[in-house]
Amino acid sequence: MERSKDMSLDIDYVAEAHRDIHNPGEFLTTLFPHINRWRRASIVLRTCNPDLLHGLTIGAAPRLESFTLRVSHYHGRPLTLFAGLSPPCLGEFNVGGVFLLWDGEQFSNLQKLEIVAERWNALSLQRVLFILRTASMLEELSYRGDLRQVPPGENGVMSWSVIVLPVMKTLKLCTFGSSGALDILMCIRAPECRDVSVAGTLGDLGGPERLGQMYEAIVQFLPPIKAMANQGECVQIKVDDMDYLNHRVRTLPPTQVTQVAKWMVQNLADESMDIYLCIQDPEFGAEQLHFLIPPTIHRHVSKLRFWYQCGSITRYLSGGKLGSDGQLQWPLPHLREIAIICYGQSNLVDVLCMLQARADAANTLEAGGPSKIMELHLGYMTLDSEGLEIISKIEKFMQQNEGNLITVDVSRE
């Protein structure tokens, strides 16, 4: 430190990696008096004495451009960084596990902000919105963890006015156990945003009021995203049974999962947009697929991936039914690419029958028929000679129809 004199300092310190070499407290107390020289600093601690970080509160950081502070188990008093002074050069701030007394105006020059909050240091919804109102230069925002709700007696001071973030490109919100992600999203207007990720508890998903709020909050991001999409690209709709809540994994009711996906199909995709439908819910079968995208809804699903309910879904895709107008209606008529895992020989037979049925209908029906499956990604478990023979028939069929077959023995992975 003495030899570097007044030169700017770049610090990358992970206490876990050095625990057998020295005492983290001694190392940090050596650094803190030179905080005015820090340019880029990353400090990651598994745990620490609550008083150890006091050194971050007593000095200004006029050169600091990027700062990361992560502490896994911190239960000390709230901190006011840099003596409450604004670091004029600070563009990137990544903080997790530390209870800060946030003053949004102190960090008004940020371009990138990432916050990971635990129950004991979660920000309130009011505080997050205040920070965003003072961070007009923000390009990337990520908030993951708990978010304290408005206390019952403070509803009157809550401001729901629109927050304009003119240069924001990336927005990632994941609020465990609360609808905070949706509440934040409803207040933001980010015309340049291209990457939006939202997760959290959205309340009564069946309530028309909540669904309407979801639509109003998310649909604002669609025009710029659609304008950036290249012709032929797909919007991906994912049906997943996992919901991360308070660091535990639980299974959502299948009806709730399908309901969210159906809302996405109806509101976030129009007839001209290709849809890549990815199903990762073990409870999702033919009945759910019919509910999600019935033949009467004109949606252009060109790609389908599913790992479960192989027999149920492939049999559903193998035939059409007469509609109320007397016309034969095929499920997912625009489907041209499928990725699937077969867990037995009977599943392989169902796949072959489905390919043949859709190809025959495409060749014989003038209107209302399905497209041929032109690309098949087929995963399978260890097979006997009969199973391998069925795969050989599938390969031959795809070749005859100028299609492409990609096979993977998933039992070896």
The shape is: elongated
Helical fraction equals 25-40%
Pick out the low-confidence regions.
227-234, 241-254
Task: State the strand order across the main sheet.
Answer: 1-2-3-4-5-6-8-10
**Helix/strand-derived class?**
alpha/beta
CA-atom Rg in angstroms: 27 Å
- Helix-strand pattern, N to C? EHEEEEHEEEHEEHHEEEHEHEHEEEHEHE
* Overall average residue pLDDT: 79
Beta-strand content estimate: 25-35%
Number of strands: 20
- For the record, give the distance between the C-alpha atoms at the N and C termini, rounded to a whole number: 50 Å
Determine the number of helices (DSSP H or I, runs of at least 4 residues). 10
